[in-house]
Amino acid sequence: MQLTLDNELQRRITDRVNSGQYASPEEVIAAALVALEHEEHTLEFAPGELDRLIAEGEASGPPVSGEEFLAQWRALRSSVKAPKK
Questions:
Q1: Rounded Cα gap, residues 75 and 52, in angstroms
Q2: Whether 13 contacts 25, CB under 8 Å
Q3: Full-prediction pTM beyond 0.85?
Q4: How far is C-alpha 48 from the chain's CA centre?
Q5: What is the pLDDT of residue 82?
Q6: What SS3 state is found at 82?
Q7: 78 pLDDT exceeds 90?
């Protein structure tokens, strides 16, 4: 496969190779593809879903600090007996 890149992209690739971050232009392109795939597979919301989740959270009651949540969780956990083996 052969690619034609504009001067700016060629410079950016060359800069990364010259910095020692990558051994070759091919490694730069491979890393870019990995980053692109990661970005494409990150959590995405359907249209309106994030707004619905925020509204659901706001309707669930007053906010609780992290410390308060942990205290409640620990109290609940200690009140539940572990099953006997």
A1: 31
A2: yes
A3: no
A4: 20
A5: 64
A6: coil
A7: no
Phi, psi for 16 (deg, rounded to 5):
-70, -40
Instruction: Give the DSSP per-residue string, 6-72.
Output: -HHHHHHHHHHHHTTS-SSHHHHHHHHHHHHHHHHTS----TTHHHHHHHHHHHT-S---HHHHHHH
Buried b (16+ CB within 10 A) or exposed e, 30-55: eeeeeeeeeeeeeeeeeeeeeeeeee
Instruction: Report the C-alpha gap between 37 and 33 in whole angstroms.
Output: 6
Q: Per residue in 64-79, is it b (16+ CB within 10 Å) or e — as a string?
A: eeeeeeeeeeeeeeee
Task: List the one residue out of 18, 17, 35 whose CA is nearest residue 26.
Answer: 17
Q: How far apart are the first and last CA of the chain?
A: 62
